[in-house]
């Protein structure tokens, strides 16, 4: 063998090199190093094998999952609902953390008309789905399902059930259905008002029909001149809020400066009966009774004046500078009644309203937490050009958090003087 020290050839089993004296005995270090390297290599090989195996299994599972989703959707299109549910259930067993199978199951139950089972699947999905992207996807999908179910209930007149469904969904997805809840509450309030008006006017309508039948052969030219037309005075008021106090019974005491008004509206049947020469009489509230006379009817619009003038034409009446009033079949209140407007030769100044009562100092009114509030500021407190619907509870939270300062509001209320809605205006406050 060769001496590693001097490179001279020495005997095979020599203990020392006779030329340089170097020890030629072998140690076990090299053997141990080789053993360690071998072990590490074996471990790495096993790990690589395991990773490859897991990747293969994962790809196989993902492929099977996607095939089951496609199969379930095909069953849905073919209305084979039981087979579709079975396919989606199998996909959920393979990967319960993804939303696609839950969404497919929900769609099947909706197609079957079983909305309650669809909502139950949504609950199961939120309990199992993981990952921000998956949760966001499922939240968007579920929000639409709840809104569509609520719309279906509202179309059937089931406002209370629709609100209960939306409240459950909003608890599951906080804040996602707040605007929809406000919309349904507002629709329910308007529907209630319409029903009340319908009940109170049914007798009058029957009497009017009888009158019309009795006079059906009467020529329009024989219509009585100076017939007085009944009007309805609908009250509302504006408030300038100064302070809000939350109460334990779910209501709020709102301190505000208050101005009350009324607007003049005429039932549509009365509007149709008005001819040239007829009069409309209403109480202004603070300046007494006002009587206006119909002078012209053009394009279905009826024009009035309170001055005893012989106008030769509508243009002459408008150009005279006198205030005039008009009613158009296009200008209707919530219930289809006609609103009385007024104008001058300068501009139309809006519908006729009279300020009949003004509170001196601060008044306190009570508002329910579910009352609808329509505001002109967005979620960041910036004034915007479109309305946003929230409940008074949410409005109070935004106020106490400093998101918005208090503005002025028009307040609508029903015949029982219960507040039904507040509407803010961007140019107030």
Structure write-up:
This protein has 429 residues and is an alpha+beta fold. It has three domains: 49-187, Serine Threonine Protein Phosphatase 5, Tetratricopeptide repeat; 224-235 and 257-356, no CATH class; 369-424, no CATH class. The protein contains ten helices and 16 strands. The strands form two sheets. Strands 2, 3, 8, 11, 12, 13, 14, 15 and 16 form a nine-stranded mixed sheet that branches. A hairpin with a 4-residue loop joins strand 9 (341-343) and strand 10. Helix 3 (100-111) packs antiparallel against helix 4 (115-128).
Can you tag this structure with a few keywords?
single chain; 429 residues; alpha+beta; Serine Threonine Protein Phosphatase 5, Tetratricopeptide repeat; nine-stranded mixed beta sheet; seven-stranded mixed beta sheet; 10 helices; 16 strands; 43% helix; elongated; TPR_rpt
Short description:
By secondary structure, the chain is α+β, with helices and mostly antiparallel strands.
Number of domains: 3
CATH fold-type name of the largest domain:
Serine Threonine Protein Phosphatase 5, Tetratricopeptide repeat
The Rg value, from CA coordinates, equals 40 Å
What is the level-2 CATH architecture name of the largest domain? Alpha Horseshoe
CATH class of the largest domain: Mainly Alpha
Strand content: 15-25%
The CATH homologous superfamily of the largest domain is called Tetratricopeptide repeat domain
Protein name: TPR repeat-containing protein
Keywords: Membrane, TPR repeat, Transmembrane, Transmembrane helix
Organism: Butyrivibrio fibrisolvens DSM 3071
InterPro entries: TPR-like_helical_dom_sf (IPR011990), TPR_rpt (IPR019734), Zinc_ribbon_dom (IPR026870)
């Amino acid at each position: 063998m060769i001496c590693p020290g001097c490179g001279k050839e020495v005997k095979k089993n020599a203990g020392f090199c006779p030329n340089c004296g170097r020890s030629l005995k072998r140690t076990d270090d090299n053997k141990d190093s080789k053993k360690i390297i071998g072990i590490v290599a074996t471990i790495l090989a096993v790990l690589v094998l395991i990773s490859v195996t897991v990747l293969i299994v994962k790809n196989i599972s993902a492929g099977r999952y996607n095939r089951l989703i496609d199969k379930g959707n095909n069953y849905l299109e073919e209305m084979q609902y039981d087979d579709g549910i079975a396919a989606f259930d199998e996909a959920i067993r393979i990967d319960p953390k993804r939303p696609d199978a839950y969404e497919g199951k929900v769609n099947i139950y909706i197609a079957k008309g079983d909305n309650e089972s669809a909502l139950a699947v949504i609950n199961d999905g939120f309990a199992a789905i993981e990952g921000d992207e998956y949760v966001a996807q499922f939240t968007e999908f579920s929000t639409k399902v709840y809104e569509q179910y609520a719309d279906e209930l509202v179309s059937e007149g089931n406002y209370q059930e629709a609100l209960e469904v939306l409240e459950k969904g909003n608890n599951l997805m906080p804040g996602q259905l707040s605007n929809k809840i406000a919309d349904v509450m507002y629709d329910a309030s308007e529907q209630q008002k319409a029903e009340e008006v319908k009940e109170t006017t049914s007798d009058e309508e029957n009497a009017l029909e009888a009158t019309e039948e009795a006079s059906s052969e009467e020529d329009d030219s024989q219509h009585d001149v100076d017939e007085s037309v009944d009007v309805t005075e609908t009250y509302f008021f504006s408030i300038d809020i100064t302070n809000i106090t939350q109460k334990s019974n779910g209501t709020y005491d709102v301190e505000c400066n208050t101005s009350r008004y009324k607007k003049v509206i005429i039932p549509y049947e009365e509007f149709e009966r008005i001819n040239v020469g007829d009069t409309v009489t209403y109480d202004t509230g603070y300046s007494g009774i006002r009587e206006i006379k119909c002078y012209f009817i053009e394009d279905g619009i009826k024009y009035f004046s309170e001055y005893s003038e012989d106008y030769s034409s509508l243009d002459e009446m408008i150009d005279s500078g006198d205030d005039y009033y008009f009613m158009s079949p296009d200008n209707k209140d919530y219930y289809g009644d006609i609103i009385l407007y007024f104008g001058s030769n300068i501009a139309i100044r809006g519908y006729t309203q009279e300020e009949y009562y003004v509170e001196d100092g601060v008044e306190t009114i009570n508002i329910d937490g579910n009352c609808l509030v329509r505001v002109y500021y967005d979620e960041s407190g910036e004034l915007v050009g479109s309305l946003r619907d929230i409940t008074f509870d949410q409005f109070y939270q935004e106020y106490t958090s400093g998101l918005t300062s208090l503005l002025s509001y028009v307040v609508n209320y029903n015949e029982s003087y219960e507040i039904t809605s507040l509407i803010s205006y961007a140019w107030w406050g």
